[in-house]
Fold these 4 entries.
Entry 1:
Amino acid sequence: MITKSELEKLLASTETYRVERTKSTTDKDKFGEAVCAFANDMPDCGKPGYLFIGVDNDGHPCGMKATDELLQKFAAIRSDGNILPIPTISVDSFSLPGGDVIAVEVLPSDQPPVRYRGRTWIRIGPRRDIASPAEETILAERKARNFTTFDARPCFGASLDDIDLDLFLHDYLPKAVDAEILAADDRPIERKMESLRFFNSAYGLPTNAAVLLFGKDPRRFFPGAYVQYVSFGGRDKAATILNEHPFNGPVVRMLAQIDLFIETTIARKRPVFVTALREETRTDYPKGAIRELVMNAIMHRDYQGNAPIHFYQYADRLEIVNHGGLYGRARPENFPNVSDYRNPIIAEAMKVLGYVNCYNRGINMVQDELEANGNGKAEFSFRLITAFEAKVAKAGQQQELDQFKQDSSMKSSMKSSMKSDDRLLLVLKDDPTMSLPKMAEAIGLSVAGVRKVLDKLRATGRIRRIGPDKGGRWEVVNGEGK
């Protein structure tokens, strides 16, 4: 950390690519951008940069008092999730004749480009600016010079005892290497793994990819390495939870579990009421599209975070959130036409196993399949900055219900062709937690009328109540949606 004499010397000089001054103690964006710029070390000087708080443009203290609260506030900049990869900083305060000065020392990152809220900031002489594409390329190449990707690095603390070697030898290796070559390969297991970048001989350790793909307990080393599925009875997280299941274990086994789960639970076919005499078979979500989205989340996520992939099912949509925003050259403005791989070894393994294609065609195929199934296109959100979110609307039934509610003339038409029993079944299938007043509005009856229809449906066994009056839900057990 900088000494007091070094601080006074830098304050007496002008602002440079290594020094920024500010009187403000509240401009969080300014602080984050400054730390990001110093971490990127665009001149490649290899020296720390300094943000001095509590001084004017001439380097004179402006009477600030460096409290513990302020020091904690600036120390928290490194880990609040807005600057990624997380920079290395130190924070200290110094008492000078004109007041206190807080010094934030930022070391150059060995994993550039570093971004603040998704943008790469650099120092150009005494000023700060957003990096151009060419400057980002220079930073990315510097990263390649400094380090390999995360999944290629040795997993410190792990050993071959933490790897399910049978899973590697019998489930993966025969799919990755030609049978004749395998038959003639008498090398030790470490050399076989190293040839596929699953072992680092310099450290004598399995790589992060090996632990994630074949580890006996990957979450021991990467707590967020799992997929959390939750099914909600309504349209938000306040609704009753109908089902919850975490997918754990080595990625190789988890992929097969999720693949089967999507086919049997998410993409299952169901009969849908059309008229009193006709039903159609529909799928709420096409298997191929949802499978591609979940597999992409597993492949592209940032495994250095502690949160799982969120795979949430609501009454009207699916949401998939994986942690780690767009990576490398991929940007909101060029997505999905430009892709990059945060975890290229994991991506290669998933391709070997047949779960992804790695041809940058997956998202286009997803959109085509969703539109053909009546879901409409998936919505991709970049607003979370440090995470990537995909939303898929439920097919068929939601569109029918939205159209049903559009205007009074459409409601009248629906009323004439559908019994109130059938209209209420359609509504309850869409939102099992809907209140009585909302049911009445949706099907055009009074609350008392809705009560009579509910009593009739319960008496005939077509619906049943799960849970209490408040916080429970309706379940359609016969008729539409069976």
Entry 2:
Amino acid sequence: MQTVKSDPPKIGYSIREACKATSLGRTTIYAAIAAKKLRVVRIGGRTIIPAEALHELIAGDG
């Protein structure tokens, strides 16, 4: 019997991953960040968008 390996759900996205996941452009993502409509976390030199924040933006709750 073969086991199926599944990846854990993502809890954070890079800017590039957020663009790909939402079909939004980089400019739109950065504009949402600047307008405080999209929460980001800086870890080291990376900008990470929490999955919940991305879901809220898409749902219109942000």
Entry 3:
Amino acid sequence: MAGSYFSDLLSTIAERGRSLLGLDTPADAARQASGLVGLCEQLLSGRGEASGVALAREVLDRFATLDAVARLGFFTALAERFGPDRERLDRAVTAWREHHDERRAADLHFGSEPRRQELLRRLNRAPGGTAALVAMREALLADARGNPALQEIDRDFLHLLASWFNRGFLVLERIDWSSPALVLEKIIRYEAVHEIHDWDDLRRRIDPVDRRCYAFFHPALVAEPLIFVEVALTTAIPVAIQPLLAADRDPVAPQAARTAVFYSISNCQQGLAGVSFGNFLIKQVAEELRRELPKLETFVTLSPVPGLMRWLHEVVQPALGADDRALLAALDEPRWIEDAELAQRIRRLVEPRTAQYFLESRDDKGRALDPVARFHLGNGARLERINWLGDQSAKALAQSAGVMVNYLYDLAEIERNHEAYANQGDVVAAAQVRKLLRAVPRKKTGAQPA
């Protein structure tokens, strides 16, 4: 109610400001693009509240109509014309060199801030401004690939969005069959791990007594989930996803459940990429579930391994002998799982390499190669188990040879595990995972005879 009142108030202010400024919406996108940068300068130089809100709304409305070429031109102008005020910065640098005190340090800090950050703050005052800026950043991310100048603009967006969407503003809500249809439609649309095929499929995910779904919302984005997690209550740690999603499965009585399985986590807003929500979400949901069901003992994921197949082909395959290379090549034909003998041979080759993929392979920043692994290990989870053919869907077979893994969230150990991964790059893994690594052939090393 309060949010709606405030939004209506901002809209009223914007309309009054529009009448004061004499703003008319141009009839075509070309005219909108030509005046957009000038409106931004006007917005930054203005002091009036009503006129500022109206200008901000006008900028956002015109931006939404730009075609790809005009949009790129606008972002380029933000990079070239809305950086730091150089004269102000030069004065601040000179003053800091003369006197190293806190006031001059603050002047230096604020003087080095790009003007576009203040522009974004003022745009955020418009009715619906936050949602419009998230959409603007989504467009920016598409244009910024391979463009260092636009990547600098994205740093400003990310800096501000991380503040506006910090944990203190997020609201955790449970999604069930009684949730608004608009929200349920977006859960179907945004599911990124295991496709939700229709309304019946959605109901099987959120309505039974042994299923839960939780999402983070932000007051400025009405009925827009930021991230959500789907949870299955089970009696033991699962090894495969298909039984969890089966239409004919028998539900588990919540009182009998001992394990909560986070089997799908989906980010919903591309414009908020890089703003971390998932670590808070999992930990808070675990606490919610433990309060509701005190007998729950284990919190795990059942997670995909989206980077495994690429790594096998690019890193492992070239170093193998002819027979093993042929086995890996067979993975490109989905019907290999129908041949039990072939599947077993592939398993003996791939399973130990999967342990190597997690425990030894690193990117150029020293992090785990797999993006899902980086997320959960960074949250303090332990790599608990590698599940052969845990997902037999076509997508999983193409990405990971059907391999899935369990990450264990031991609430008493997650901080220690997080520190080990963040500071030393150590992957905390169960003994059964480390045992698999022993089967990876190693090249013999040693001194050569003289």
Entry 4:
Amino acid sequence: MAEITKMWIADKMREIMKHKPIDKIRVTEICKAADIERPTFYYHFKDKYDLVAWMFCRDAYGTDITSVASAAAGMNRMKQDIIFYRRAYEDASQNALWHYMRQLLGD
């Protein structure tokens, strides 16, 4: 059930990010779009940046970067959701996606 809730929240975040950059989105707005209470959001994610990092990792999980075919398939999935990835990478805030990725890949 928790995974379904996380995916629901992520889907709503993707919809919002089609129209706004991350720094202009508030957790309250995500909760309203997902029709959930703030404690539900914070049960699953630390903040909106944690949500975006989870979304990225979930999308990339099945990609084997040592396989050309797998990497190409992963890139094609990203291309289909280019607005989300562009906005995620353009964010230069303190908690930007690249901070999470650096921490994840560094560990």
